[in-house]
Amino acid sequence: MRVSRAQAAANRRRIVTEASRLFRERGYDGVAVADLMKSAGLTHGGFYGHFESKEALMAETCASSGDIRTRWERLTAKRQQPPFQVLVEQYLSPRHRDQPGHGCLFAALSVDTARQTPEVRHAYTGTFRKFADMIADWLPGRRTNRRRRALATASSLVGALVLSRAVDDPELSSEILDAVRQQLLGATASATPASSGKPAKE
């Protein structure tokens, strides 16, 4: 039976969504195409009607995370707090730490991505640039060295989450999140002028 274009598009989105979750939970090498398609409720043979290879899917899952700014803007819009504060508090939270499948691409797959094809790394890089640009817009205080500060902040966020997941001591894990959260928010609290809660523009 021939599948309609609308259904084919829906199936593709389902594959990408499920792959994004599974890759974050298990790593790229920990997910077989057959297992992925089964999890998506589709047949194994249908995979290659959508993607030339597993690597092509991996690249698409990285690129599909490129709307990261939209998702964070929706979250921050619900809070009566500066966007940067919401970002730091939510990113460095126990909930984010404990749900890698629904969390940040960078904290879950950076080490794996470094070993992948140029196609996958290029898609990852494009999404990371958008993440860093978002942070640069939201940084309160002085506008000088905004890009460098944004890159340092992104690295601190990702590194803290990676370490908090890796250690086997729950207390140490929480200490890591708390220490970096306080460091980032303390540094911006002392910056001037005080943030108005709106994304800053260069």
TrEMBL record:
GO MF annotations in UniProt: DNA binding
Listed InterPro entries: Homeodomain-like_sf, HTH_TetR, Tet_transcr_reg_TetR-rel_C_sf, YxaF_TetR_C
Coiled coil: none
Protein's organism: Alloalcanivorax xenomutans
PANTHER family per UniProt: TRANSCRIPTIONAL REGULATORY PROTEIN (PTHR47506:SF7)
Keyword rRNA processing set for record: no
HTH tetR-type domain mapped to chain residues: 9-69
Keywords of the record: DNA-binding, Transcription, Transcription regulation
Protein name (database record): TetR/AcrR family transcriptional regulator
DNA-binding segment(s): 32-51
